[in-house]
Sequence to fold (842 residues):
Amino acid sequence: MKSPPRRGGRPRVVIAGAGFGGLTCARALKHAPVDVLLIDRNNFHLFTPLLYQVASALLDPGEIARPVRQLIRPLRNADFLQASISGVDFEGRRLLTDHGAVEYDYLVLATGAQSDYFGNSSIAEHSIGLKQLDEGLAVRNRILAQFEAAEWTDDPVRRRMLLTFAIVGGGPTGVEMAGALSELIRFVLRKDYRGLDTNEVRVVLIEAAPHVLSQFVPFLREAAHRSLERKKVEVMLSSKVESVTDSTLRLADGQEISTGLVIWTAGVKASALGATTGVPLTRQARMTIDPTLQVPGHPVVFVIGDLAGAQDGSAYLPMLIPVAMQAGKHVAACITDMVAGGGAHAFEYKDPGIMATIGRNSAVAQIRGLQFSGFIGWVIWLTVHLINVVSFRSRIVVLVNWAFEYLFLDRPIRLIVRAKD
Amino acid sequence: MKSPPRRGGRPRVVIAGAGFGGLTCARALKHAPVDVLLIDRNNFHLFTPLLYQVASALLDPGEIARPVRQLIRPLRNADFLQASISGVDFEGRRLLTDHGAVEYDYLVLATGAQSDYFGNSSIAEHSIGLKQLDEGLAVRNRILAQFEAAEWTDDPVRRRMLLTFAIVGGGPTGVEMAGALSELIRFVLRKDYRGLDTNEVRVVLIEAAPHVLSQFVPFLREAAHRSLERKKVEVMLSSKVESVTDSTLRLADGQEISTGLVIWTAGVKASALGATTGVPLTRQARMTIDPTLQVPGHPVVFVIGDLAGAQDGSAYLPMLIPVAMQAGKHVAACITDMVAGGGAHAFEYKDPGIMATIGRNSAVAQIRGLQFSGFIGWVIWLTVHLINVVSFRSRIVVLVNWAFEYLFLDRPIRLIVRAKD
Fold:
């Protein structure tokens, strides 16, 4: 591989991962006297909060993913390399990738998180996560293919199995997916599959804790729970999944659910890169770091986002986009200071609040002590997400799609398609 | 498989293929006293004239493909089955599919066309066609992946290979793809890959005949040829492809082109279904039919679209959308008459004209003796295609994408992505 360009011997900052943390860090280094190399295994940045809308046939990939090269175009000091990252050589100051080793002066590890199946291979094999764009497309393909198969089978047991969709995990992703899937079925697929009885369709949300959305205050949890039930989602609380086959989900209490699709949102852990570094790991396989976000003993290496085991007092910061973005800005400021001869300072997180939507007209939001639910919560959710979709064009296209869905109860993207190899 | 629903013993019309011919036929039977079953291997209808825009990263699949079930929703007498069609049992009046045999009273064969590699397995194996949606996505993935690889290789020979794109076939598809690809590179990728010298990139259009767009009058052919050259497409005429490997295209005259991507638009033949029926085939593997579009000896079986060897005087009708749509309407009228005790009548094609676009501001159109080129041709092309995109929502989204591309020279969908299996 050829070496990344050097612009007059300036220090090189290598950023591993073009998610919210890595991208924010690269942008915040725009005017710093450094050369930035952003590396990701995909050529796009993914707006993960709307991935469930790809999975539920409302948006196309192009609406929630943007080419990294387009996003860094305004940064004259940044380059992009599409490569898989396999490890770090701290002594040699080299990041190891499938395109060879890349030298750094400063390194920012921001490779994010992955689904955690807690070592249960039957779940890993027979369920689909909702972390990657290809998983969103796979869920969409599977939902539609199961409806097609159900329409033409004359075996009622098999039809029940094909029409039962299990979502494991009652966090925001699971709740949003369950709400969107239920609406897809009740508003859209019901009209597409006139030979099917919609009452046979089940959307089951399975959560191990005694309530959904445990990050939220009890009042909002209960509002979300009621909203899910109004949307005909079967919410099963205090239920742990023991195993999954291609047609059955078995709970720890022995109960079995016959289902053709299990969507796994119940576990998340940091990307596998952390374990390769030799740095001690904390909860969820996150890397232990100093309050400055530096790796202990390696002051030119920073960790941000889901991979970083950053603490706020005694609690670990949640795996959320605002944490990653604020950390990205923090690290950019530290590196700028260090290049100028200064040092790193401690990271402080400012919580902007959390929110989750449960389909049409319903969301819960918890912002600086204020609580919103129902329609008002939904308007707040819509506004925040539309503003944050990463490009102006996408904002228009997403708005058109949302408006059509809202007015005509339509899901435009009900296509079973994959790229030819 | 369960039987398709019967609505009071009405005759069943089975339509094999949900392309322009099959879909038009189903729609034209909306008020006929028949039950319609539309069958396609995909769950979507594809607006093929814009497939090259998916391949050149301007549109997402959702903009040019619509779920068949959504399209037939207003038809209360129509059902859909997603299945691959393998043959016809004329005696038993059954269409054979991978979901079992489907009985018919009337059968309309409309399975369209496929790429023809003229028995050359090296071309079949090492090139990508532009007939199916997955091929459009594969071309897009390959173009972008080759630019990524080219940016980081330090081998100039390999870089030349990765940056040479060969399009074989100078018909409308090849010409439109070449123009769109050249603009993608010169307007968009040039800014994304600042480390690459755009002068190293080659878009080569290879045509066996002595001119491109041989269907058009000489004046328009020449206008298209000049337009391609202005867009830096290398047009090689009177050149036949002999073989292709994963890095080389070899012409019949011995010349070799080092290229990492060969897009094949040079040959098309009717779908393989024709050969399984025992009905004699004409040119391009199309089925021999009566002037009424009936299969000789099987008056309840009609053939339309690219699969039909329909003749206008002594010439075969071209494989074009208007032919398929007019034939679909014709057959619907014949079946309606036959159900009422009448008979089929001869098909007559009314030529609405042909057109092709060569990127921004340039197209050629030939409509009822009138000829248009350049900007006026392009405005006509835009209008016709925008009106015909199959849904209102798509029309808005396509317009937004086209407007952004026109104003900002941007291609929004530059994503390398495929569904997880």
